[in-house]
# Entry
Amino acid sequence: MTRKPAVCLEIEPALVAAATGDADRATSARVESHTRLCAPCREDFARYRAIDGAVHAWRRAPAPAEEAARAHLASRLADLRRRTLAYGIFPSPLGPILIARSEEGVSLVEYLSGGHDFAHSRLSRIEGVEALPDGAEIEALYCELLEYVEGRRTRLEWPLDLRLARSGFHRAVLEATSRIPYGAVRSYAGIAGELGKPAATRAVAQALRWNPLPIVVPCHRVIGASGALTGYAGDKLSLKQRLLAVEGVPAVTARRELRVPCECMYVRAPGETAYCLPTCGWVATQPPRQLTRFGSRERAEAAGLEPCAECRPDLHPISR
Amino acid sequence: MDPGRFDALVAAHHGEIYRYLLRATSRASEADDLAQETFLRAYRAHRTLTPDANARAWLFAIATNVAKNHFRAESRRRRAHTAVRATLSATDGAEPESETLFNEARARLDAVVAALPPKQRLAFTLRKVHDLDYDAIARSLGCSAESARAHVFQALKKIRVSLNGHELPPGE
# Structure
């Protein structure tokens, strides 16, 4: 095999680039002036041109089974998307908090007590979930949550995904809890009664103990029938007190436990559109555990209630 | 996360990523698996993609990585099971029709490209089939733009040698 002259070897990359449409104008001009004088390189150039043409035809060749491949991907992607929760971890006045959401809605708010990282989270241990760190979108949720726990916002209008509820009953408890208005409290027994299971008070308390969405599903607004705060997220009773205080619901220490003073709160009976003084004669006829109690008239009215025409809480507000 | 944004990525780029992987592996079943792997990886990472990022180049970079890993595993497997491989390749000829890629002229080019070393094959396909620029190819392959250019040059030289004496289908 004869070796090419050095000048031809040197220009070969430029020649190939020019013949296959990959060279700038100066390179093409250099190649052209060489091939004008060099017959073997001119031949090379023509051959590479032909190859380039063949490649152009080749690239349009139909790709077999493309539709089937798309369908296979769609099915695996749908499965991954169903299992995926995107999360972020943030500092908060209540301690480090993890927020996670699916494509349907927010599905987990977790107080991180074991450590500030994902490895210590409950999320990392939930089977069948693929947790992925997220950026701006979860951070926007956190900013709203921060405003909420600091009392600068009274509503979190987030789409929720209750996939981490453990049963239909658990889900029903979470939904009933979600309906308790801002600045109000209800009892565990009241929720059990609303769900048609008046004996299930302990089951309601258990369900709220594993509330995947604390703050958002306001389990801090559910207290004992006596007014005792009872419990919150394991051993975080002070957080419950703090969240209630932000909403204007006081909790005081009485008989060595934290209690909401139910006797000096405005009340609403189930189904009523008015709120009453706790001393209202009509209230006395209602089972106490069914009542929703408000820390202030403003909160009761913000929940769409009118003052009772009998006891007139608007004319005789409770003094503390 | 905006589900629509990722759906749009799949709709816009699945076809060309699949074809890229088909040319890289020459087998529809492997291209199918690797395209799935590419998009599942992309889904896991797409939240970190900035709105102004070049999503197409990003997807090609993921597909290239997936293909490179596949070639590595493949060559390990080949070394480990040379005997088994011989039996398998005997059945390759009896593949369903959908596995037969192109007509004869195209098949020749296909065979030549399939015989290229992996980096040259990937660089050549990215440049000549999918029109990626050399910077994007370099990022995909983890090399400099100059090396990417050299890979394409070497690929074309080999194609030229392999096609010597063959009629080529007419170009544009």
Q: What stands out?
A: Chain B touches chain A through 48 residues (CB under 8 Å).
